[in-house]
Amino acid sequence: PVLAHGERDPKVFWHEPTKQWIMVLYGPPGNQYLIFTSKNLLNWEKQGAIPDMYECPDMFPLQLDNDPKQMKWVVIAGDGQYLVGEFDGKQFRPEIKRKRGDFSPNFYATQSWNNMPETDPRRIQVAWLRGGSYPKMPFNQQWTFPCELTLHSGPNGPTVYRYPIAEIEKLWDKTETIGPTVLQPGGENPLAKLTGKYFDLHVKIDVAKTDAKEIVFDLLGKKIRYHVGEKLLDACDAGAKNCPSKAPLEPVDGHIELRFLVDCSSIETFGNHGAVSISQFIQPNLTKTPLVIEAVGGKAQLDAITVHTMKSMWE
With 0-12 CB in 10 A as exposed, 13-18 as middle and 19+ as buried, what is 4? Predict the structure, then answer.
């Protein structure tokens, strides 16, 4: 095919309601997505446009609140920011202001799989973690863990949740479960005896019974904080200026749930079962205790801690 403009990054999918192919392209004039339609994948007709979008478009339907009668369309930009709205096969009409799909500048070039089997209609997404540095690694660059996307109602309109796919459980090795625990400032680390390099860490915190200012997770030398009073999940390095890796995380019924996928060169953090995510590359420090949880400025009530050490995905 010959295009009249310098478009790139085509996303092509079949639109069953109108029995035609849809192609979404990033291209000029300006930063926008152009929508084309075709009956045969050869002859394309230009339709609508979605302004102020940059690179790597993705577009797909999702059920709102798992209700097949409430189908919405999601358009995702290269950096994971997204719109939710209606699509008639020609025009996309957003219903919300754009939202962040992930709160890390490393998260980029997102794409999701089409043509999942009818028995497994999940929408599964991966992204590239840009900006990484991988000394002494047998690879260069990486994807995020695959995540299932779901759409949920919220006070600011429909919100996309990202949460790791269930198949990651196949990598679980040993499991350590710790019941209700009170963290005291400067107190004992409940994970001090754990060893390993790869982890899937789940923590549930009773915020209503916590008077700590911060709960700090030191994971392979990377510190991630939950600021209790500000209700803020913070994955910025100490002293970093203008760091975007901060996500608002409101407690649900007085609790928050955190999950950390700790790999050899990345940590992916999920709050409240995917309501927010922060996906970052790291350079791990393997000379110290791998997992540390501590309370700062008061005690913290942890309802439960579950840690799965993980096997490598490579044979």
Answer: exposed
Task: Please give the C-alpha separations between residue 276 and each of 76, 99, 127, 136, in angstroms, as whole numbers.
Answer: 15, 11, 15, 31
Q: How far apart are CA 88 and CA 43, in angstroms?
A: 20
Note down pLDDT in tens along the chain; length 315 residues. 566 666 789 999 999 999 999 999 998 778 999 999 999 999 999 999 999 999 999 999 999 999 999 999 999 999 999 999 999 999 999 999 999 999 999 999 999 999 999 999 999 999 999 998 898 888 899 999 999 999 999 999 999 999 999 999 999 999 999 999 999 999 999 999 999 889 999 999 999 999 999 999 999 999 999 999 999 999 998 777 888 999 999 999 999 999 999 998 999 999 999 999 999 999 888 888 999 999 999 999 999 999 999 999 887
Residue burial 224-241, b: 16+ Cβ < 10 Å; e: rest: bbbbbeeeebbbbeeeee
Cis check: omega of the bond before 29, within 30 degrees of 0: yes
- Distance between start and end Cα atoms, the chain: 41
Q: Which residues, other chains included, contact 294 with Cβ-Cβ below 8 Å and sequence gap of 6+?
A: 183, 185, 186, 187, 189, 215, 216, 218
Structure tokens of 297? Answer: 């400025």
User: Hey, how many other C-beta atoms are within 10 angstroms of the C-beta on 129?
Assistant: 22
Q: Distance (Å, rounded) from C-alpha 20 to C-alpha 70?
A: 22
Q: What is the DSSP string of 216-251?
A: EEEETTEEEEEETTTTEEE-PPTT-SS---EEE---
pTM over 0.85: yes
Q: Is 126 exposed, middle or buried (0-12, 13-18, 19+ CB in 10 A)?
A: middle
